[in-house]
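[09:14] KT: can someone run the structure on this one? pasting the chain below
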Amino acid sequence: MTTDTISHQREADFHDAWADSTSLHDVLVRECFEAPTALENQFILARMGPLAGKKLLDVGAGLGESSVYFALRDAIVTTVDISPQMVATALRLGRKFGVQLDGIVSCAEDLNLPACTYDVIYMANTIHHVHDRAALFEQLNRALKPGGLFFSYDPLAYNPLINVYRRMASSVRTPDETPLKTADIRLARKYFTQVQHREFWISTLLLFVKYFLIDRIHPNRDRYWKRILRETPETLWWWTPLRALDSILTRIPMIRWLGWNVVIWGRKPCVSSAERIARP
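[09:31] RB: done, structure tokens below
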């Protein structure tokens, strides 16, 4: 059994267990995009434009929050995850909200989907689970229509506070995760044009400090990145000025890489990725 096969099985088993232990009642669909802490998704939505009638591929869709949200905006959604139970949960969630999803169980590096099919591809917290990222980007390029868009957000590798959190949150993470570095953005530019990135969460990470020091919630007791979606403007009165500060910090070279997450987006060129890579 290869290293990648073992890693894929660990990822599938971990996320199967997560899906099995989660009630549909606890899956936050609208909050995932509309909560005051959903900074990355609000940024992405503003750049996606209208989704009605567009074919959208949600890679690494997890419990299905994003797939359902996009379907509620009248997109034609295919939800993909390496975990069979996550896909099953996403389809049940769709039925709960009265929307239709197509579900596929697959690793992201080998989607085996029809070429030039999707208008938009979305990935949330997916790339950092993938070892062969060149294969992933090649698959995304193949699945997109010429001129189609991809959007992703994932954690970055450089913030020391988040790296401490990752070591503490060992039970709610998989051992195969590798946060993104600047090299991943350079790699994306080999397969897509107009690739841009925006970082999030620097001073606003004090919310994580609050959870640990004041609320006394250990990172293994609750997934902080899900807990933030339950916050309201009333509970975040002290945090909102930090969000304004981050709008400046995340535009400063070097400092921006201390963000927790990075949004990456780009467009499939009209020429093939192979032709693009071959160019000098």
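[09:33] KT: thanks! The CA atoms of residues 17 and 85 lie 8 Å apart.
[09:34] RB: yep, looked fine to me
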